[in-house]
Amino acid sequence: MLRPGNHDGDPLPGGNEASLFAFNRNFCADPSDAKKPSPDSGEVNKSPMIQPNVYWTLLTPYVTVIGLYTNVPEGGEVHPDQVSWFENELKSADSSKALIVAMHHPVFSMDRFHSGGQAMLNLLDNGFEKTGVIPDAIFTGHVHNYQRFTRTHSTGKKVPYIVAGAGGYWHLYWMQQGVSQMSLPEKVPDRDDVVLEKYSDDHHGFLRIQVTPNKIIGEYYVAPNPHESWHASESPTQFDSFEIELQKKAK
Questions:
Q1: What is the pLDDT at residue 250?
Q2: How far apart are CA 100 and CA 65, in angstroms?
Q3: What are phi and psi of 196, to 5 degrees?
Q4: Which of 9-13, 175-179, 192-196 has the lowest mean pLDDT?
Q5: Residue 179: closest CA among 108, 117, 121
Q6: How would you label 153-181 residue by residue, b for 16+ Cβ within 10 Å and e otherwise?
Q7: Which of 32, 103, 158, 210 is the most buried (most CB within 10 A)?
């Protein structure tokens, strides 16, 4: 399941396609078109995907994933109809399963280019307060590096807020000056409830998540850096790992 990034909703200058039109054509196609090549696939002959919407909830045996679309403006922007939908999805989530929220714009970030977004923090906190539901993990992108934060909510629940946006874009985003001198884990300046646990801003990488009935297991891998001496056969190496113990109550 995919959710669009900010550039998917930003029409090309001089283009005649509406926002998200190309994303819908390739990832939210009608099932009758699922076996036909996408008009954008070129020589690859790739068929489109048929996910139901640009934002969605994925139901699995062990985890519920709420995928938000946070629009184009810097810092993110979610319209009232999706806010209502998000709060309803929080309230309706099966409390016997893990709950993950995935969104494009980050809530917390200590990079030099974007940093976190107050609008997204307000969106989440308002939803948590209204529903009484706090997810087990928050996954974001937008910033082209990796950062793992832990936030301690007022209930005492510790939740990882993760930025994983180093999947391929050539321009990796450096962290703010002074971060490299921090002795991690360390509290984020002006935030007594948020700790920066680990980061990588000089390698591309990817995050792998495994969910069992009792825990969420995360592993972040970095790819070999082409500016370093390496062989093409080298595999990505594990850079970070974490586990979230689940304490669920049956409905």
A1: 53
A2: 5
A3: -85, 120
A4: 9-13
A5: 108
A6: eeeeeebbbbbbbbeeeeebbebeeebee
A7: 103
76: Cα separation from own chain's centroid: 13
> Per residue in 227-239, is it b (16+ CB within 10 Å) or e — as a string?
eeeeeeeeeeeee
Alpha helices by DSSP H, the chain: 21-27, 80-92, 118-131
Instruction: Work out the end-to-end distance of the chain between its first and last CA atoms, rounded to an integer number of angstroms.
Output: 26
Q: What is the pTM of this model?
A: 0.91
10 within some domain: no
- Overall domain count for the chain: 1
Beta bridge partners of 147: 163, 199
**Do the strands 158-164 and 186-187 form a parallel or antiparallel pair, or are they unpaired?**
unpaired
Residue 91 inside a domain? The answer is yes
State the Cα–Cα distance between residues 24 and 50, nearest whole angstrom.
9
CATH number, domain of 192, equals 3.60.21.10
- Residue 110 is assigned to a structural domain of this protein: yes
Which of 110, 112, 113 lies closest to 74, judged by CA?
113
Q: Which of 32-41, 92-101, 236-245 has the lowest mean pLDDT?
A: 32-41
Q: Cβ(137)–Cβ(159) under 8 Å?
A: yes
Closest to 70 (Cα-Cα) out of 120, 111, 25, 116: 120
Q: For residue 113, what are the domain limits?
A: 55-245
